[in-house]
Every structure is written in structure tokens, then in C-alpha cells.
Design goal:
This protein has 11 helices and 12 strands. It is of the alpha/beta class and 341 residues long. The chain is elongated, with a radius of gyration of 26 Å. Belongs to the bacterial solute-binding protein 2 family.
């Protein structure tokens, strides 16, 4: 190789090396810019940094989740997605018993979390713990349950549906559809959201008879047997209104056992309910968008903690009711496959 050629080769290698260094630097800057300089989350929503570029905050989400109820999986997924985006460490816990749920709130207070998102299925039992959190300077938002009580308890924001309004909407549709005898099944006696739903159905339904049946969702074989017996005893029942997707699934079995012609309609959805609506075993469902409730509860706390924002202008932010039936179930099914509806 001639000396001129050697100089050219050397110059080329230097330029390539410089370009490689500059390229690496650009990539490093871009990576830091997209994550706020923090490591990426692993996608679990368990507290890794997200895309918000804000300091890490810890939020406790405390619910009255009933074990095995897939409705709560949707709420949790929404919360985890918001936590991932907002660089929030999410501490999720639940207990269907109100005193135990209140104890979980106290635990969150003692651990000095930055915010609390909770459900108020039994507001009277939760009120003292909520007051302690607020007195400790911890922002508290409610979702899913407690529509009639959150504001008087001093809770900052609420995300969910007006359960009485949702029930009334369901009752009006049943009247329009010409139903004559409605059985409303409450799976947890004393749970204010469930009782409000049936009260709303009674208000909205003017087409005939109405009756409430109390069952215990902690004993699903008993639920099936009780509904079967009721449908056998009263063949005039032409509509069963359930207040949760798992109860609707069981009602379908009870209807078959009893040889009943009653239509099954329900509040709330899950992936297993989709084919039941598609094949007509369940006529329709009222959707309150649980994924959205979980997402908004966490995201609203982030907005408040990082920018002083609140949502709703002092009023509840309604996520429902909306009907899912044969007209739109196929579109919803696509999202149900990914576990978000």
C-alpha cells in the first residue's frame, strides 16, 4: 500500500470511530430523555420507573376484592398500567371484610405512602381509617364503591358509576323489553353498591313484579342451588338480574337446572361472560369499565401529587353505565382477549 493510500485508510478508520462514539452518545441521551434518566419498568406495574419522568411515588390501592372474582383483575391491570406510566410504586392489597380493609388503610398510613386509592363498599366501617389518612396529609381517592358517601368522608376524588342510576337504567330497559317478573340477586348482603343497584332496578322497572334474592358469593354451590330452587318454585320469573359476572355465569347453570325460560342479564363483565353474551345465554351486561376505574384512580393521584390537578370539578367521574349486548359484544371481545375489558 502506498503512503497516500495508508493515510487515507487511517483517516477513514478515525472518522468511523468518531461516528460510532457520537452515535452511542446520541442513543444514551435519547434513552435518558425518554425515561427521565430512570431505568425502565419490567412491565409488572410493581414500582419500576415509567415514562413520566417524575420522582417515584408510592401509592397503596386497597379494595374489598372477593377472592376469585375476575372483575378485580381488570381493576388491578388498569392500576398497574397507570403506575407503570407514572413511575409509581403500587402496593395492592384487598380484603372483603370491612374491618380488615380498614386495617390495611392503617398499615398504608403507618408506612407513609404518598397516596391511597380505595373502595368504600361499607363506608361506615371505613370512615375512621379514611379520616386518619386525610389527617396525616395523605391524598385519598375512591373508586368503584362509595358513590353516595365519598364526598362527605372528605375523599378527594371518585371514579365509578352511580349505582342507583345504573340500576334504574337497567330497570327501564327491562320495562321497554316487556319483562313481567324480575328477580334481582344480591351476592353480598349489606354491600351498599349491590343494594343500590337492586334499588335502582326496582325504581326503573314498571312492567310488573320485582323481588330480591340474597345469596352468599363465598359459597358458589349454594348460590347455584338457591337460584335453581327459586326458579323452580316461581316459573313466572322471566328475568334474573345478577350483580356480577360470576353470578351471571352461575345463573345460566341454575336456569338450565330448573328448566326455566328466564332471561339472564347482569351488571359487570369479564372475559368468560363474552361468549355467553355472544351465544345469547346472557342477554346483556352493564359495563362500568373496571380497567378504567383502576387506571384513573392511580393516574389522578399522580396528577395531584405532581401538578396539583384534580378531576371532576368536585363531582364523581362516571365510568358507566353502558350496555354490552349483541350489537357491540364482538368489538368488546377483542379487548377482553387482552384482559382489559
Amino acid at each position: 500500500m502506498h503512503s497516500t493510500e495508508r493515510r487515507r485508510a487511517t483517516r477513514t478508520r478515525r472518522l468511523v470511530g468518531i461516528a460510532a462514539v457520537m452515535s452511542s452518545a446520541v442513543l444514551m441521551v435519547a434513552a435518558c430523555s425518554s425515561t427521565g434518566g430512570a431505568p425502565e419498568d419490567n412491565g409488572s406495574g410493581d414500582g419500576g420507573a415509567g415514562n413520566a419522568g417524575t420522582p417515584t411515588k408510592t401509592v397503596a390501592m386497597i379494595t374489598h376484592e372477593v377472592p376469585g372474582d375476575s372483575f378485580w383483575d381488570l381493576i388491578r391491570k388498569g392500576a398497574e398500567m397507570a403506575a407503570k406510566k407514572d413511575n409509581i410504586k403500587l402496593q395492592y392489597s384487598s380484603d372483603p371484610e370491612a374491618p380488615n380493609q380498614a386495617n390495611l388503610v392503617q398499615t398504608a398510613i403507618d408506612s407513609k405512602v404518598d397516596g391511597i386509592a380505595l373502595t368504600l363498599a361499607k363506608p361506615d366501617a371505613m370512615a375512621p381509617a379514611v379520616k386518619k389518612a386525610i389527617d396525616a396529609g395523605i391524598p385519598v381517592v375512591a373508586f368503584n364503591s362509595g358513590y353516595d358517601n365519598w364526598k362527605q368522608m372528605g375523599v378527594q376524588q371518585y371514579f365509578g358509576q352511580d349505582e342507583t342510576l345504573a340500576g334504574k337504567t337497567a330497570g327501564e330497559r327491562l320495562t321497554k323489553d316487556g319483562r313481567k317478573k324480575v328477580l334481582c340477586v344480591i351476592q353480598e348482603q349489606g354491600q351498599i353498591a349491590l343494594e343500590s343497584r337492586c334499588a335502582g332496578v326496582k325504581q326503573g322497572f314498571t312492567g310488573g313484579g320485582f323481588e330480591i334474592l340474597n345469596v352468599n358469593s363465598k359459597d358458589m354451590p349454594s348460590v347455584e342451588a338457591t337460584m335453581t330452587a327459586k326458579l323452580q318454585q316461581d316459573p313466572s320469573i322471566d328475568t334474573v338480574v345478577t350483580l356480577g359476572a360470576p353470578i351471571a355465569q352461575t345463573a345460566v347453570q341454575s336456569k338450565g337446572n330448573a328448566g326455566s325460560n328466564a332471561e339472564i342479564v347482569t351488571f359487570d363483565t369479564n372475559a368468560a361472560l363474552v361468549p355467553l353474551i355472544q351465544n345469547g345465554d346472557v342477554k346483556w351486561a352493564i359495563d362500568q369499565q373496571p380497567y378504567l376505574q383502576g387506571y384513573l384512580a392511580i393516574d389522578s393521584l399522580w396528577l395531584y401529587m405532581t401538578n396539583g390537578n384534580t378531576i371532576g370539578g368536585g363531582q364523581a367521574v362516571l365510568t358507566g353505565p353502558a350496555f354490552i349486548d349483541e350489537s357491540n359484544i364482538d368489538a368488546v371481545a377483542e379487548y377482553a382477549k387482552s384482559g382489559t375489558r
